[in-house]
Amino acid sequence: MAKLFLVRHGQSQWNLENRFTGWQNIDITALGQLEAQKAGKALAKESIDIAFTSTLIRAQHTLQIILDEIGKPDMPIVINAALNERSYGNLEGLNKDETAVKYGVEQVHIWRRSFDVAPPGGESLKDTYDRVIPYFEHDIKPELEVGKNILIVAHGNSLRALIMYLEHLSPAQILEREIATGDPITYQWDQIIH
């Protein structure tokens, strides 16, 4: 029975600085590296056949640390922008607290936490869902259906979109879901109704 493992990348420099990161290519911090090692230790006894990740260095670096930790540094890796973090558009690089002062706490909350309202020049969670799920169905799901164990290392919102799909959650339910950095989530593929 195939397993699907999801891991959010370790803490990035802009997570630490409380900045909107989105598609900016920011690497992980020393703490992020430790989180990736912890994820690797948690997955060490699992059999993983193939890994998928985004085009962003924080996810790729986290994945490589995990693969080193589990002793499979040469595992096949598929990199695709469909797994990238949600784009925050014009907010990328801005401090979240300063942005709340400038635009108002309520407006920033709507941009960050509504399902279908995008920040200026960016993507809503619905937009992210609309690129993640077709990619999952076309490229990842067939691997699970032939019995391969899959590791996806990606981002808070791309993983949130995938979890919404896998668990049949409503927009309100998924917006309440927090995904910790470096903490693997495991699904038994045969127990997921698709």
TrEMBL record:
Is this entry keyworded Isomerase?
yes
The record's section on PANTHER family has:
PHOSPHOGLYCERATE MUTASE
Q: Name one GO biological process term.
A: gluconeogenesis
Question: What does the record give as the reaction this protein catalyses?
Answer: (2R)-2-phosphoglycerate = (2R)-3-phosphoglycerate
What EC number(s) is this enzyme filed under? 5.4.2.11
The biological pathway it contributes to is: Carbohydrate degradation; glycolysis; pyruvate from D-glyceraldehyde 3-phosphate: step 3/5
Q: State the organism of origin.
A: Sphingobacterium athyrii
Report residues binding substrate.
8-15, 21-22, 58, 85-88, 96, 112-113, 156-157
**Gene assigned in the entry:** gpmA
Q: Which UniProt keywords apply?
A: Gluconeogenesis, Glycolysis, Isomerase
Q: Kind of enzyme, top EC level?
A: isomerase
| Catalytic residues of the enzyme | 9 (tele-phosphohistidine intermediate), 85 (proton donor/acceptor)
What Gene Ontology terms describe what this protein does at the molecular function level?
phosphoglycerate mutase activity
Pfam families given in the database record: His_Phos_1
Assigned protein family: Belongs to the phosphoglycerate mutase family. BPG-dependent PGAM subfamily.
Q: Which HAMAP family match?
A: PGAM_GpmA
Pinpoint the site Transition state stabilizer. Answer: 155
The task this protein performs is described as: Catalyzes the interconversion of 2-phosphoglycerate and 3-phosphoglycerate.
**Sorted alphabetically, which InterPro entries does this protein's record hold?**
His_Pase_superF_clade-1, His_PPase_superfam, PG/BPGM_mutase_AS, Phosphogly_mut1
Q: Among its keywords, does the record have Lyase?
A: no
Q: What is this protein called?
A: 2,3-bisphosphoglycerate-dependent phosphoglycerate mutase
